[in-house]
Amino acid sequence: MAYLKQESTISTKSSYLLFLFNPFFRYWWAALTGCASILAMYVTPSQGITLNGAMIMTITFIVLIMLFITLSTVSQGYQLYIGQLEGLCVSSLERNRDVSEGRVFILNGDVDLPVGSVIDVHKRMGEAEVPLALIRINSRNSKGAYQATPIGKMNPSHIKEHSNGGLRPMNLVVRTSVDLQRVKEVLYDLR
Fold first, then answer.
1. What share of the chain is helix, strand, coil (3-state, %, to 5)?
2. Residue 10: per-residue pLDDT
3. Which of 14, 127, 145, 186 has the fewest C-beta atoms lying within 10 Å of its C-beta?
């Protein structure tokens, strides 16, 4: 089975429908129409088929049930598709004197993480991504967004860039899995 390569993480209904129906039209449509055409020549009697009222009602009932199941599957699949593309993203990075770390990351997304989880945030620099901070989720705010604070020190150049307004949330990448080497680096800084 072939999968579409996503060009961007912006999801639209048309990209979802293309994602959903592309394998069907690519592989199955030709086989189904070919088999149906050949089968129709040999199975259909020359005098035709006669349907009574009960058969029409049964066929209509089955078709409507299949239509309902198809629409509900497409609807639920779209919700999963949107969640898959979004993941977690930094919506803002705020300076806050009420927390000892001095900075609070606000994260949005459809990923469920328990309070206390550690995640890794990287900064995009062109095509490269450099580590920014390991952060710990402290709580959720009233809008459902995660609030997280850095573990250890942030690079002073990143702090200066944030103070000057150059560090934008759209340039930050959130990774929910943390590399062991990153943990060792932060532990070394905490000593």
1. 45, 25, 30
2. 57
3. 127
The span from the CA of 169 to the CA of 107, in Å, is 10
| pLDDT averaged per 10 residues, the chain (length 191) | 44 76 70 78 77 90 87 79 71 78 81 86 84 86 88 73 74 82 77 65
Cα–Cα distance for residue pair 150/100, rounded to 1 Å: 10
**From the CA atom positions of the chain, what is the Rg in Å?**
27
Structure tokens at 105: 């990351």
**Taking the CB of residue 56, how many other CB atoms lie within 10 A of it?**
10
Beta bridge partners of 40: none
The C-alpha angle 106, 107, 108, rounded to 5 degrees, equals 130
CA distance 148 to 106: 7
Cα 79 to chain center, whole Å?
9
- The per-residue b/e assignment along 108-118, b for 16 or more CB within 10 angstroms, e otherwise, is bbebebeeeeb
- On whether the pTM is more than 0.70, the answer is no
Angle at 26 between CA 22 and CA 29, to 5 degrees: 105
Instruction: Compute the distance between CA of residue 133 and CA of residue 120 in angstroms, rounded to an integer.
Output: 6
pLDDT at 191: 65
